[in-house]
Structure formats: structure tokens, C-alpha cells
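Support request, please re-run this one:
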Amino acid sequence: MTAIAVTLAGSDSSGGAGIQADLKTFSALGVYGASVITALTAQNTRGVTGIHDVPPDFITAQIDAVYSDLIVNASKIGMLSQPAAIEAVAAGLAKHKAQNIVLDPVMIAASGDRLLRPEAIDVLRRVLIPRAALITPNLPEAAALLDGPEAKTEVEMREQADRLLALGANAVLIKGGHGKGPESVDFLVEPGGMTRLPARRIATANTHGTGCTLSSAVAAGLAKGLPLADAVGEAKLYVTAAIAASDKLAIGSGHGPTHHFHKWW
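Re-run finished. Output below.
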């Protein structure tokens, strides 16, 4: 049977993040990708210049079209900029009994532009976090979800992950890419334990779409039947290699994308 994953996210017109990054990741990892577009963005490697939200009823129509026909093995949720979009996605996934949901709580682009309206954060907490098999916040996103300061140490990262579990998350991958030091350390925290995932910190400006790429790589692993910890571990290796190869690309003049197809070209 063909492994199928769906990305429910915003479109990045420059191709480095959002559904474009997700579909590239699915393809690179041997998974068929489908999409539900939740927003259109006008953006490039320098920043976001416009956001056009897809009406909630059309988000619902896309979900119904895809999930009523395709046998979906995993779903990745990315940019949802407004409360109505979050509600539509939550209702649609519940209707179709979607499994293996990975939620990337996208709030701010690599350029610093805000992608999630502040009033939508509470809705995200209430209706989507408990539904996801895994949430993948970076340090600023974890702080925003908890309405507190950013974690500065590994101890604080683990404490914040535990607090996110207490909010209803089933598992948390808190990412240390915004941290300091020679290693970029992530923590996978589940009710039954914790896994530390270190990787060499790579000096590059090409970090556009790294969060999208990691979360969609986890979804790809789940779609292929991997246990969560294995899917996360393989996704970490993939995105680290994609970042390490990113300087082989010459894309734009700002934060360039990772190299999703580094194994092939």
C-alpha cells in the first residue's frame, strides 16, 4: 500500500517553507503527499509581504475531498493564521477520524514576520493540541503557548515540554534551533519518558522552512508505519543533513531554504 501524508498548511510563494517544503519532504522520504491549503502568503527569503486567508468553508471542502478518497496515513498541520481556520481543520480531521497528526504551531517566519494572530493561540491550545499525536514547537512557540519566557537551558526546555503535556499534548518535540552553543538539542517528551536529540549546530543563514521540514519528515515516518520515537529520530537526521547541504543552493538574498533533495542533487 502506498504511504500517504497530507499537509494542512499555508503556501509559501518562494517554495522554501509551508506546503511546498512539506511536499518536497514527503517526496524525498518516499511518501505520496497531498495538501489542504489554509492560507496564501506573498513571501520570499527576505520576508512576508502579504497573507490571504482561505475561507474556512473552503478549507473544509478541501479536507472532505482529500480524506474521503485517499487513505491518509498521517497528517501534518502547519500555518493556521486565524481562529476560524483552526476550528475548520479540527472539525474536519475529527469528522474523518484522522490519525498520526503532527502539529507544528507555526507563529513566526524565519524572517521574523508573524503568521499566527495572537487571538488564535488559545483556540490552538484548546482544539488542536489535544488532537495531535505530536506537537513540534520551537523555543519562541513553546513560550507563546505557555504565555511565559523562552527556555534558556535544557532543564527549562524539558520543564516547558512537561507543561505542554499538562495542557493536553500527547507528545512534545521541543526544538532547540533558536538556542546557543555548539549543539542544537531537541527533546522528545512523552508521558512515559524523554529522549534527548542532539545535532551539531550548523552555521548557515539558510534556515527558511526548517520547522516545516522537520514536522513533515516526522509525519512521513509515521505514514510509513514507524513508531513515534523512530519517526522523530529519522526526521532529525534528515533535516540536519538538509541544513548542512543548504549552502549548495543559491536561492534568494535572505534566509534561504534547506536542501530537501540533498541526496539526489
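DSSP finds eight helices and nine strands in the chain. The mean pLDDT is 94.
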